[in-house]
Write a structure and sequence with these properties.
By secondary structure, the chain is an alpha/beta fold. The chain has three domains: about 270 residues, no CATH class; about 210 residues, 3-Layer(aba) Sandwich (Beta-lactamase); about 140 residues, no CATH class. Helices cover about 25% and strands about 15% of the residues. It is built from 15 helices and 23 strands. The strands form eight sheets. Strands 11-10-23-22-21 form a five-stranded antiparallel β-sheet, with helices on both faces. Helix 6 packs parallel to helix 11 and helix 11 crosses helix 12.
Length: about 725
């Protein structure tokens, strides 16, 4: 590309009619990458960066009054050396950018060097001359697209409508626009940029020959220039990269008059419409690059040498557990040491007549005895024997089932008692964890149809409902209720009160509650037909849980129910006598010596029950053996966890205070209380971590609450602090 301006050739002039009559001015450009002249849109409203007065447009035209301006005003040169700075340039253009120089040389003036001309970009153009010169064709050389703009006049100002790209054309002329009645190019309907409130369909242009198309493109590039005045724009402090071209802008709103519509700014019908796809693709590439960089950074941080370098682990903290494992490896206590430890508590006169035994279950060695083979009243400590028999004979997962079957008459149902005394009459108020509910049974029966009559069948048990030597006063006192196979909450009147009063007819009361909830009359005793259809069924908690519950709260009714289940399991009569026989049979079958043991119930409520303390420690010692070599040990292990914890649970929750405080949490034992009788049997872990088994039975008329029981607690606590090796 030559450095000096080029004038039109004859061949070029032949392509445009009417151009020869008007002066033609050429503007050269340094390279195909930097256009020599643009009429852009941006920064029209920006203030000039200096106090230099506005310059006139580099586009010149002849008039009758004289020659056009050369690009300089007020005595300033119209062009400068290519290395000099110019104050009026691109909006945002770097400081030090070059001007385009004059568009035509004045007479007697040298031509401007255009080799350093910078890209004009979004240069603001205003038209502000006293008299508008005639439009002068301007030829812009170059083989690449040139940005162009449409300028509309408005008094002494103009409006730049849009900047776009010129298709590859050698020349772009600014010809004089038709005047008068001839419709100008600006008055033609627009095609690509409809107004916001009106968007007409794009006009289809028929294909034309190449030469004719070039002429139309030249005509499309023609701009009406009534008044031209350049408003200098501030430059930025840095130079724009050589090949960076500003984004074309559209719809730059400036004052405009004399036109009803914005002129068509399209230079070629084949020019592709702008879209944002390249921008979106570019943004996507940037995001991917950022993610890749973050990944590399993370890999470098996590997988680099810094991640491999780790400090050696800190030394493990020294742990000194307060609770030591109970093991046979702990120092074995001696009989002399145990006697010395018990010497003080044994001197308490409140104990009265005391029998008992202390055994090391690890080796079966007796450590202390006091009438251990002499039968004594065990009271509720007898439950240890019933619980052991149940764990040795019954399936621990077995459940007690209560059913309702179809009666002999239509609308009649029969409740068949299945031996579960823990059914909850009021949900949320039961003392038996995991108990079934009466409401569940009622709802099942309701789904089968209306009920007009309710009967209850208590034939599962036989014999007397109260045990030998049981007193009626014990029912109201809350100790017991008649033993029947169907009742609610163990016969309690207040379902949540463990020691509350019981009812004397628990079966009738439970059946009436069932009938009332079905809307039937009061229930009556009856017998379920053989093979009758089952209308509803509920089940108790598993046997193992029932055993645990009866030991924790020392429930006499539940214990007697379990004794009868043992009787049924072993083929004995489900009665008091049958239950006692079944317990003895099971214990004797498993090798326990029942010599001197005589009992008439399974709960220990009868004062006529007599057993030696040794029998209790024998059963507990097997359950507490350190290994499971003995099959009985595995079966009896739940017996230990069913024992109340000193100061923590069950009947021992409020005990072990004062002198017995050291045994709190370390003693687990079953209590027994009758008139003038108190007992305590269980296990304790001494300070050396050795498990000891004990049984103490006291016959004393002293106050049980304040004297006898605390004295028994002190004995067990002394074994805890023994260290009797």
């Amino acid at each position: 590309m030559p450095d000096e301006p080029q004038w039109p050739t004859e061949d070029d002039d032949t392509e445009s009619s009417g151009a020869s009559s008007a002066a033609t001015v050429q503007v050269s450009r340094t390279s195909v990458d930097q256009p020599t002249m643009r009429l852009p849109v941006a920064a029209v409203l920006s203030a000039p960066s200096t106090q230099e007065p506005p310059r006139s447009s580099p586009v010149r035209g002849k008039s009758e009054g004289g020659a056009a301006e050369s690009g300089a005003r007020n005595g300033e040169p119209g062009f400068r050396n290519g290395s000099e700075k110019r104050s009026g340039g691109l909006s945002g253009e770097k400081t030090g950018g070059k001007s385009h120089g004059p568009v035509a040389p004045e007479a007697g003036q040298p031509r401007a060097e255009s080799g350093n001309a910078a890209e004009s970009g979004n240069r603001t153009v205003e038209l502000n001359t006293p008299e508008p010169p005639r439009a002068t064709p301007v030829r812009v050389q170059g083989g690449r697209r040139q940005p162009a703009a449409v300028v509309e006049p408005e008094g002494d100002r103009t409006r730049v409508v849009r900047q776009t790209d010129v298709a590859n054309a050698k020349t772009a002329r600014v010809d004089q626009l038709p005047m008068g009645g001839e419709q100008s190019w600006f008055e033609q309907p627009k095609q690509d940029l409809p107004r916001p409130d009106q968007r007409p369909e794009p006009r289809q242009q028929p294909p034309r020959p190449d030469q004719q198309q070039r002429r139309e493109q030249g005509a499309a590039a023609t701009m009406r220039v009534d008044q031209l005045q350049r408003q200098d724009q501030p430059r930025s402090d840095q130079q724009r990269p050589p090949q960076q071209r500003p984004e074309p802008q559209q719809h730059e709103d400036l004052p405009v008059t004399g036109y009803d519509q914005e002129p068509e700014d399209r230079l070629s019908a084949e020019e592709p419409k702008k879209n944002r796809k390249p921008l979106l693709v570019g943004l996507a590439v940037l995001v991917v690059a950022a993610l890749a960089g973050a990944t590399l950074y993370a890999v470098a941080r996590l997988d680099g040498s810094a991640a491999i370098e780790t400090r050696p682990p800190a030394a493990p903290a020294a742990v000194q557990p307060l609770v030591k494992e109970a093991t046979a490896g702990a120092p074995a206590p001696t009989a002399a040491g145990v006697r010395q430890a018990l010497a003080g508590p044994l001197g308490n006169a409140a104990l009265g007549t005391l029998t008992g035994s202390v055994v090391d279950p690890a080796n079966g060695t007796p450590l202390w005895q006091a009438g251990d083979t002499t039968p004594a009243t065990p009271a509720s400590s007898l439950k240890i024997l019933t619980a052991a028999a149940a764990l040795l004979s019954l399936d621990k997962t077995a459940q007690l089932s209560t059913k309702v079957v179809q009666g002999a008459e239509p609308g009649t149902v029969v409740i068949v008692g299945g031996g579960d005394p823990t059914i909850s009459g009021v949900p949320g108020r039961s003392v038996y964890p995991g108990a079934a509910t009466l409401d569940d049974l009622v709802n099942q029966v309701k789904q089968k149809g209306p009920v007009t009559k309710v009967e209850f069948d208590l034939s599962r048990y036989t014999g007397e409902a109260l045990g030998p030597q049981w007193e009626q006063a014990d029912i109201a006192g809350g100790s017991v209720a008649p033993i029947v196979p169907f009742m609610l909450d163990g016969g309690r009147v207040d379902q949540a009160n463990i020691n509350g009063a019981r009812t004397g007819s628990p079966g009738q009361a439970a059946a009436d509650a069932f009938a009332q909830r079905l809307g039937a009359p009061a229930a009556t005793a009856g017998t379920a037909p053989a093979g009758a259809q089952v209308l509803g069924e509920i089940k108790s908690a598993p046997v193992e849980q029932l055993v645990d519950n009866m030991m924790q709260i020392s429930d006499n009714v539940l214990t007697e129910a379990i004794a009868r289940e043992i009787a049924i399991k072993t083929g004995n009569e489900p009665s008091f006598a049958g239950g006692v026989k079944a317990v003895r049979d099971v214990l004797g079958k498993h090798g326990f010596d029942l010599t001197g043991a005589s009992f008439v119930d399974g709960s220990g409520l009868s004062a006529s029950n007599k057993i030696p303390a040794k029998l209790l420690t024998d059963v507990l010692a097997v359950a507490a053996e350190p290994t499971l070599d003995d099959q009985r040990t595995a079966m009896l292990r739940p017996l230990l966890t069913s024992l109340p914890v000193a100061g923590g649970s069950g009947t021992l929750a409020g005990r072990y205070t004062g002198a017995a405080a050291q045994g709190k949490g370390w003693v687990r034992a079953k209590t027994g209380t009758l008139t003038a009788v108190n007992a305590l049997a269980g296990v304790v872990v001494d300070v050396d971590g050795r498990v000891l088994v004990f049984a103490f039975m006291s016959g004393s008329d002293r106050n049980p609450e304040t004297e006898v029981r605390p004295a028994l607690d002190a004995l067990a606590a002394a074994l805890r602090g023994c260290g009797c090796s």
